[in-house]
């Protein structure tokens, strides 16, 4: 049976915790989404590139990553458990027949994959007291449902009420002169920030959310490049926050 999360790295107090909600496109054997196999590697299934980056970063002392292990089509970990979108019935124009569930089936899936992940994130924040939490995502440069929409940013920074670490992140990432940095792009953390709202903002934990454009991190070279950039950026933010 699929475990709800993966831990990468060695836990240490006061380090950096990397939280990757949409790390995996895995659909457990016991779940039939009713989708064509062509969508297994699609952006609606997960955030491509984020898991390798988190694992690379967690090879550095003081960095620990927690990664969700089920596809976001099974359960979207960056939602609230009582909102409809936690189990999507349609994503970027694609119907997901296997997500038309009864209330009991819906709760069983949340209890199996959503709750243990968030319980572990919460305990890591409480026990390790990280100097910084990085919420790591990636975004598609285009969408099937809106072919006219273009997303030109290399990275986007997301935040809600707590802005301090995000402001430093924007500054330091812009100093990586080749990067086009979006402030609250391609969407706002005021609207999509559930994991950080619940596990960081609620307890005063410094964090920032980062989205990387997927076409920049589809191969190992791009993943290593951004792992290095984020290690430098997180270390600078930790110093600025101290």
From TrEMBL:
| InterPro entries per record | N-FG_amidohydro, UCP029730
Q: Which domain of life is it from?
A: Bacteria
The protein, known as: N-formylglutamate amidohydrolase
Q: Which organism is it from?
A: Parasphingorhabdus flavimaris
What does the record give as the organism's lineage? Bacteria, Pseudomonadati, Pseudomonadota, Alphaproteobacteria, Sphingomonadales
């Amino acid at each position: 049976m699929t475990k709800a999360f993966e831990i990468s790295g060695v836990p240490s107090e006061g380090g950096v915790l990397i939280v990757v909600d949409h790390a995996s496109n895995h659909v457990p054997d016991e779940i039939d989404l009713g989708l064509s196999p062509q969508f297994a590697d699609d952006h609606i299934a997960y955030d491509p590139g984020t898991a390798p980056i988190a694992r690379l970063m967690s090879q550095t002392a003081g960095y620990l990553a927690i990664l969700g292990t089920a596809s976001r089509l099974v359960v979207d970990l960056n939602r609230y458990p009582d909102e409809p979108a936690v189990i999507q019935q349609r994503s970027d124009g694609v119907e997901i027949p296997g997500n038309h569930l009864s209330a009991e089936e819906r709760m069983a899936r949340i209890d199996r994959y959503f709750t243990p992940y968030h319980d572990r994130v919460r305990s890591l924040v409480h026990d390790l007291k990280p100097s910084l939490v990085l919420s790591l995502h990636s975004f598609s440069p285009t969408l099937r449902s809106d072919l006219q929409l273009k997303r030109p940013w290399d990275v986007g920074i997301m935040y809600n009420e707590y802005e301090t670490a995000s402001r430093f992140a924007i500054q330091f990432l812009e100093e990586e002169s080749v990067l086009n940095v979006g402030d609250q792009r391609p969407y706002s953390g005021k609207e999509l920030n559930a994991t950080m709202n619940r596990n960081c903002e609620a307890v005063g934990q410094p964090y920032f959310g980062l989205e990387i454009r997927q076409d920049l991190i589809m191969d190992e070279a791009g993943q290593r490049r951004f792992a290095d950039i984020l290690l430098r950026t997180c270390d600078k933010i930790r110093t600025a926050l101290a």
